[in-house]
């Protein structure tokens, strides 16, 4: 079983210490405990990918990838290889620009193929995707993260025929978490943020379990 986990943080100073990457590490830790055999997890930090905006040139219809964006192509092929995909997405404005580039290109590729063939089936069809949203506010912001991040991203992935996995009726499109505290050091323009990582881990686990179940059912 191959899992790709996209860390959508794009904060230069955070690098591997970002909340998105930490959540990806928790996904891997939980997945290895629940499915210890034959599991390969690849964490893909978007900070390391210099993505280019779509120009709607149409060349992806023939090529099956982007004509001018090798960074996107690398990510796309990792997504294609994976049996399941997690996206850990922070709240920026509200959706990070690199995530928008990815979803826009996936949608345009699917749309052009559908225009050419109304019976088109995406290579991503029924691939499970689990979305984890987070931001710099406390628990009261979770309904906003659901509306501003989870629901639009679920629509984007669903439009390219991926299967969005949720936890329950309240959280049908993934899960979200916030922070416990923040303060601003005198020597930095950035705030320091605290998370309850044990609590976050407990809330991520049901989504990971649902994702693993979806993959196993798909591979049977």
Write a structural description.
- By secondary structure, the chain is α/β, with parallel strands linked by helices.
- It has a single domain (2-219), classed as Rossmann fold.
- It is 42% helix and 17% strand.
- The strands form two sheets. Strands 1, 2, 3, 4, 5 and 6 form a six-stranded parallel sheet that branches. The protein has a two-stranded antiparallel sheet with strand order 7-8.
- The longest helix has 23 residues, at 197-219.
- The protein is globular, with a radius of gyration of 17 Å.
- It starts with a strand and ends with a helix.
Q: How much of the polypeptide forms β-strand, as a percent range?
A: 15-25%
- Helix count from the secondary structure assignment: 6
Class by helix and strand content?
alpha/beta
Computed CA radius of gyration, to the nearest angstrom: 17 Å
Instruction: Estimate percent helicity.
Output: 40-55%
Which whole number gives the mean pLDDT? 95
Estimate the global geometry from the Cα principal axes: globular
State the CATH architecture.
3-Layer(aba) Sandwich
What is the CATH topology?
A: Rossmann fold
Q: What's the CATH first level?
A: Alpha Beta
Largest sheet: 6 strands, parallel
Q: What is the count of β-strands?
A: 8
**What's the quaternary structure here?**
single chain
> Distance between termini?
12 Å
Uncertain stretches of 5 or more adjacent residues: none
Order of helices and strands: EHEHHEHEHEEEEH
CATH superfamily, please? Flavodoxin domain
Total number of distinct structural domains: 1
